[in-house]
Design goal:
Elements (H helix, E strand, L loop, with lengths): L1 H9 L4 E4 L2 E4 L5 H23 L3 E2 L6 E6 L2 E8 L2 E8 L2
Antiparallel strand pairs: 1-2, 3-4, 4-5, 5-6
Length: 91
């Protein structure tokens, strides 16, 4: 909370209080907004396809999906520009 207090002192107008909660108003550039939109679009497409293939998305980590097929667990993890595919079999 001290960081928010310091921000309020040094940059008036950026930090406001709404319903007793601190709210920070920031301005994003067009490039950053486009980049976030593309990332969201890729995530949405990937999760849709994985659900079609029977994978379940982890509700606590939205970039983690699992599927059990014939006793084998398949896990797909992804982040920004990496996709990791893990296979685990029970012996």
């Amino acid at each position: 909370m001290t960081i928010l207090y310091e921000l309020r002192k040094t940059r008036p107008g950026y930090l406001q209080t709404e319903k007793r909660k601190a709210v920070m108003n920031v301005k994003f550039g067009k490039r950053l907004i486009r980049r976030a939109a593309i990332g969201f679009s890729v995530w949405k497409h990937l999760t849709t396809k994985l659900k079609e293939y029977g994978f379940s998305i982890n509700p606590y980590d939205l970039c983690d999906s699992n599927n059990m097929f014939e006793g084998t667990q398949y896990t797909i993890l992804w982040d920004v520009d990496d996709i990791k595919y893990l296979v685990s079999t029970e012996k």
